[in-house]
Design a protein that fits this description.
alpha/beta, Metallo-beta-lactamase, Chain A, about 260 residues, 5-stranded mixed β-sheet
Length: about 260
């Protein structure tokens, strides 16, 4: 797991698998852990990381309901999980899905965990909205399209945008599994003014971006989505894995 400080109040930990990001945000005497790394050793290291950096953990936040963003409870077992109302509704409508998908990943990759995932208390947050975080407020912005649910988190005092599974330098836009091209485009348009203000943009998967690179990826993603099903893949995302994502996107668009 790679750890990087972006601001006195923001630290990002990046998992060894899928470059999944986990962001710690501090607002004085309160703080939040947004999303999660994946491997047990990474999750076990999070409390020590928070303590060493003097980051209080008042609660957990998930940008959306995909299982690899919900593992914070394995690191902070007593913390409540906050998410957009749309994500809370998704988790309620599909009880146990995240746990089943986590077990499938663990079985495929021979991963052993000391305890099963229990989401515990889930707090539905109004989005768009604001979340008090001690001395500062986080802004919550709607971010659906990759899935039917989700939110992006903007820390205005630190000029850091945590955008979930958008603006990834490693992944194409993903529509399969409940996504929507029109909603995805609308989310990118909502994120655009935040990207322009940001010093750092933290995608759900991939390296932390500055505003210039994030804006370039945003333009690439808009062009890619507009050109589907005949879209060309952005040059930096023409891997075999992303070609499979593209094929699934073409099928998803054709099926609607």
């Amino acid at each position: 797991m790679h750890v990087r400080a972006l601001h006195a109040d923001v630290v990002v930990a990046t998992s060894a698998v899928w470059q999944t990001t986990c962001t710690l945000v501090r607002g004085g005497e309160e703080g939040f852990v947004i999303d999660s790394p994946v491997y047990p050793s990474e999750l076990e290291a999070l409390p020590a990381l928070a303590t060493q950096a003097r980051f209080p953990v008042s609660g957990l936040l998930a940008t959306h309901g995909d299982w690899d963003h919900l593992l914070g409870r394995l690191a902070f077992g007593q913390a409540a999980l906050g998410c957009a109302e749309t994500t809370a509704a998704r988790l309620t409508a599909r009880p146990g899905q995240a746990q089943r998908e986590l077990r499938a990943f663990d079985e495929e990759h021979y991963v052993e965990r000391s305890a099963p995932l229990a989401l515990g208390q889930v707090q539905a947050l109004p989005v768009p909205g604001r979340l008090e975080g001690g001395a500062h407020e986080l802004e919550l912005h709607s971010a659906d399209g990759h899935t039917e649910d989700g939110m992006a988190v903007w820390a205005p005092w630190a000029r850091v945008l945590v955008c979930g599974d958008y603006l990834s330098p490693a992944e194409l836009p993903v529509l399969a599994g409940g996504g929507s091209r029109s909603a995805y485009v609308a989310t990118l348009r909502r994120l655009e003014p935040l990207v322009e203000q940001a010093d750092h943009v933290v995608p759900g998967h991939g390296c932390v971006l500055d505003a210039t690179r994030a804006a370039a990826i945003l333009r690439e993603d808009l062009a890619y989505l507009d050109a589907l099903p005949g879209a060309a893949l952005p040059l930096a995302r023409r891997t075999a894995a992303q070609r499979r994502v593209h094929e699934a996107n073409v099928a998803a668009v054709a099926g609607r």
